[in-house]
Amino acid sequence: MSKYLLENESTDRLLFRRIxxxxxxxxxxxxxxxxxxxxxxGLPSDPMEACQIQFDRIFERYEKDLGGMNALxxxxxxxxxxxxxxLVQEVDDIQELEIGYSILPESWLQGFxxxxxxxxxxxxxxxxxxxSLISIIHVDNxxxxxxxxxxxxxxxxxxxxxxxxxxxxxxxxx
Length: 174
Known about the structure:
Elements: E1 14-18, H1 24-32, H2 47-64, E2 67-74, E3 80-91, E4 94-103, H3 112-126, E5 132-138, H4 142-150, E6 154-161, E7 164-172
């Protein structure tokens, strides 16, 4: 099991658990809403294919201890509302630990991304995984940038990541 997973962790409204193959159909809704991927170039246009590629990568990360996304389950409803996790990434030839987050469109604007991202930050620093964390966010993705700023991050630089113009937000352990 990846040490970076927040399995069995929780916040006031969310439970974190490992993503399962059975989550695929629930997560597919993310790719059927074009707003979810509007900022990211290079994804397959077919939602099934895009979702399968993401799930394959999630399970590959689990196997190789490269961090991974956690399913975010809303305690009140028991429903999947998003995914969030700590991911080992390489940005500009430097290995970093990223807080990544995506929320299903039906659960947007309810604070789930911030709540989950904040928990990831606390978990990483409490476990001494890194002295700093980043979030890789497309330059046009203002909602995700707002989550990063609210999570205590600052805009460190702008670069290219996977052929996309991105801002690198960073938070240092304080």
